[in-house]
Automatic annotation (TrEMBL):
Signal peptide: none annotated. InterPro entries: ATPase_E_C (IPR038495), ATPase_V1_Esu (IPR002842). Produces ATP from ADP in the presence of a proton gradient across the membrane. This is V-type proton ATPase subunit E. Keywords: ATP synthesis, Hydrogen ion transport, Ion transport, Transport. Gene3D superfamilies: ATP synthase, E subunit, C-terminal, F1F0 ATP synthase subunit B, membrane domain. It comes from Clostridium colicanis DSM 13634. GO terms for cellular component: proton-transporting two-sector ATPase complex, catalytic domain. GO terms for biological process: proton motive force-driven plasma membrane ATP synthesis. The gene is atpE_1.
Length: 197
């Protein structure tokens, strides 16, 4: 019987040793699996954080770029408004020219035009500076230049300062508003460099 006890004890000891070995191996596998998963999670975390950081950087750059664009547009808008005000002020100043200066401008500009001398000179109906006598003076000067010297004076409602020369439905618009519009493109860069440099 003692052999059976010894044999039974030996089987139990071997079984316990095998069980202990299986448990130990399972613990090692468990620890390795956990370490592997933790390592994979850390790598994934780094990838996610890197991606998020990159996206945040791109988003921040876009926001800054957009802010610069808006600031530039606001600056351009302000410059445009300032230029508009400068040209409006120029128009106001031209419309307020003293009578003598206006008549000199008108005479000099008419004499510089390539006209026959029998056109119609149109001014605003409220313009009391341009009289038939003044047109006679201009006609004399035109005759002296070899032109017909037969300009006729007529009036029109709501004509901004300046005048229009017309013949056969074709006109030369020398109103101050038209003169400023036509020379604005040429003058705008120069005015801007004076104002904004």
């Amino acid at each position: 019987m003692s052999n059976i006890n010894n044999l039974t004890n030996k089987i139990i000891e071997d079984a316990e040793a095998t069980a202990k070995q299986i448990v130990d191996e399972a613990r090692i596998k468990e620890k390795n699996t956990i370490n592997k998963k933790v390592s994979e999670a850390e790598k994934e975390k780094k990838i996610i954080l890197s991606r998020a950081e990159s996206e945040a950087k791109i988003r921040a750059e876009r926001i800054v770029s957009n802010a610069h664009l808006q600031a530039r547009n606001m600056k351009l808008s302000a410059k445009g408004e300032t230029l508009d005000n400068v040209f409006k002020a120029a128009l106001t100043k031209l419309n307020a020219l003293p009578q003598e200066e206006f008549l000199k401008f008108m005479k000099d500009s008419i004499l510089s035009l390539d006209i026959d001398g029998d056109e119609e000179v149109i001014v605003d109906e409220n313009n009391s500076a341009v009289t038939p006598k003044f047109i006679e003076e201009v006609n004399k000067a035109l005759k002296a230049k070899g032109k017909l010297g037969q300009l006729k004076l007529s009036f029109k409602k709501n004509l901004s300062g300046g005048y229009i020369i017309a013949k056969n439905g074709i006109g030369i618009n020398n109103t101050f508003e038209s003169l400023i519009k036509s020379s604005r493109d040429e003058l705008e860069a120069e005015v801007a460099s004076v104002l904004f440099s």
